[in-house]
Write a structure and sequence with these properties.
The protein has about 525 residues and is mainly alpha-helical. It has helices at about 30-55, 60-70, 85-95, 105-125, 130-140, 150-165, 170-185, 190-210, 215-230, 235-245, 250-275, 280-285, 295-300, 305-325, 330-340, 345-365, 370-380, 390-400, 415-420, 470-475, 480-485, 495, 510-530; strands spanning about 10-20, 20-30, 140-150, 420-425, 465. About 55% of the residues lie in helices and about 5% in strands.
């Protein structure tokens, strides 16, 4: 708009007549643009009023701005209303320009406040003549419009326009599709309106939940649909349409059930994001919740107990870790899929499914990529450094060491610790100047018993969590200096215990034998940490 000189095109609008009230139009398409315009005029009026009070000449009628765009001066009637869940907020902050006192409860309220702050900041630094020019540009902006008589026609046109215009979110597309289908399926207009009110209430709850979670709304929808149809279903909008057409029973009841379940799915995400359950926290740390959310949504949908939810988390942490440890093209989702899509109704059926999956991992060759033998083989790999879960393994090992003193749930989280931690090669990647043995690191040569050979340098036994600043300060100093620094002013037991693996405490050397002793201890700990029999 800043660059517009003569006329500004505000776009096309789709309206619906509001019953017998010919003075009221419902906005089908164009809500965001009109909301932005009202915020624009509200902030503009406030800025120009402030300048007028400072005796500056203003060539804009501020009462007209209020009367035309904000509130009827004589009747006190709000000219533009948002959806019911946001309107009180909009009335206070935009129409009446009250001070920001209330927290935002929906993403749309957050966007309204951000738009207001943007305009306020922009107007404050803009000259009055330019503000007056902007006022005329918006007031005289060109538009096109179309007014329909009922919601069926509105829904059809809206779906047609947005299938070919600016892309909507998947959630918006599904909502629009469901509302259109209800109007087409309902026998009477009164019935359709009641069903639509039900959907609007559920979506109002959904929109209020979106502001309280970190996960994107379309991701929630995707994981919810997978909890019904399985991991392979990514084409959500087409899948919803196909599923509705294939539904043999009451299609309106099916739509309402899906929307209610979707609302529960958003609530599930909020619970998982805020949970203090240690295994749920660990799952979040693994950063692969796409595997887990469908299971949680399915479990909460049937009213699973918190004890069962915790067991689901414990199983999912175990299998997610094994999957990430392995990486590559092995597909765990296809193995889990038959259990995800299986009909369950209570805790017993959930626990039976977990038992069956555990047994499959232990005995079924199709699940062999993730069994205990593969777990140990992958952890025993001499090139473990920079594996996707190297930090996580060392974090879990740290918890293993301090678990007696710090029972679950842990006070210090993975993110709290890892944020400032890096991985230390105890025997440095580059040998120290001079004779490595004299500096306490054994032989650095391509012989079977050298640290560089036999993959000893990058194996778990030679890797340790350490702060970035600590790591930089010690570099590749002699081992005796490193050992001294490990025992001073740190929270990590895995640093303090390094001395336990040294054979001669008076003449400490970190050689292949010491690395191997620590390596074996970590492998033994891993067998306990990810023991399938303890799930």
């Amino acid at each position: 708009m800043k660059n517009a000189q003569r006329q500004y095109y505000l776009g096309h609008f789709l309206f619906e007549e509001e019953g017998e009230n010919e003075n009221t139009l419902l906005i089908i398409d164009g809500q965001q643009r009109l909301t932005t315009c009202v915020i624009f005029f509200s902030c503009l009026k406030n800025e120009l009023k402030k300048r007028k009070n400072q005796n500056e000449t203003i060539d804009v009628d501020l009462d007209d701005i209020t009367d035309y765009y904000l509130k009827d001066i004589h009747k006190g009637i709000q000219k533009f209303e948002t959806v019911a869940a946001d309107n009180n907020f909009f009335l206070n902050e935009i129409i009446d320009s009250k001070q920001n006192t209330n927290d935002t409860t929906t993403k749309s309220q957050l966007r309204i406040r951000k738009a207001k702050l943007f305009f306020e900041k922009e107007f404050e630094k803009t000259e009055t003549k330019e503000l007056e020019r902007w006022t005329k540009l918006v007031e005289n902006a060109a538009i096109t419009q179309f007014v329909v008589e009922d919601k069926v026609q509105a829904a059809q046109i809206f779906a047609f326009q947005n299938d070919r215009g600016k892309a909507l979110s998947k959630l918006e597309i599904v909502k629009s599709y469901f509302m259109l289908q209800i109007y087409l399926l309902a026998e009477r207009k009164e019935q359709a309106n009641e069903h639509i009110k039900f959907l609007e209430r559920e979506f109002s709850t959904i929109y209020s939940q979106t502001v309280r979670i970190n996960l994107k709304e379309d991701d929630v929808l995707t994981y919810y649909w997978r909890s019904i149809k399985g991991y392979s279903y990514d084409k959500i909008t087409d899948g919803v349409k196909e599923a509705l057409q294939e539904t043999p029973g009451n299609k309106i009841d099916w739509i309402k059930g899906i929307v209610t379940g979707l609302s529960q799915a958003f609530n599930t995400v909020e619970k998982i994001e805020q949970s203090t359950d240690s295994y749920i926290s660990d799952l979040r740390s693994l950063n692969n919740m796409a595997l887990s959310y469908p299971f949680f949504m399915k479990a909460y949908r049937v009213g699973a107990s918190e004890k069962t939810i915790s067991r689901i988390a414990k199983f999912l942490e175990n299998i997610t870790f094994r999957s990430l440890l392995r990486g590559g093209r092995a597909d765990i989702e296809s193995r889990l899929n038959s259990f995800l899509t299986k009909k369950i109704e209570d805790d017993n059926q959930i626990n039976n499914s977990i038992d069956t999956m555990i047994n499959r991992i232990k005995t079924d060759g199709w699940w062999g990529y993730w069994n205990d033998n593969e777990l140990l083989r992958l952890l025993d790999d001499g090139w473990f450094y920079q594996n996707r879960v190297d930090n996580y393994v060392l974090w879990k090992y740290e918890l293993y060491l301090c678990n007696k003193n710090y029972p679950l749930p842990h006070k210090v989280s993975f993110n709290d610790l890892i944020r400032n931690e890096s991985i230390e090669h105890i025997a440095p990647q580059m040998p120290t100047n001079g004779n490595p043995l004299a500096n306490g690191y054994g032989k650095y040569k391509d012989a079977e018993n050298g640290i560089k050979s036999g993959h000893w340098l990058h194996c778990l036994g030679n890797l340790m969590l350490i702060s970035q600043s600590h790591n930089s300060s010690i570099g590749n100093q002699p081992f005796v200096n490193k050992l001294d620094s490990y025992g001073k002013d740190n929270l990590l037991h895995q640093q303090k215990e390094i001395q336990d693996f040294v054979e001669d405490k008076n003449n400490p050397v970190w050689d292949v034998a010491a690395i191997n002793r620590r390596h074996e201890k970590i492998l033994k700990a891993a067998q306990e940490i990810w023991n399938l029999d303890k799930i």
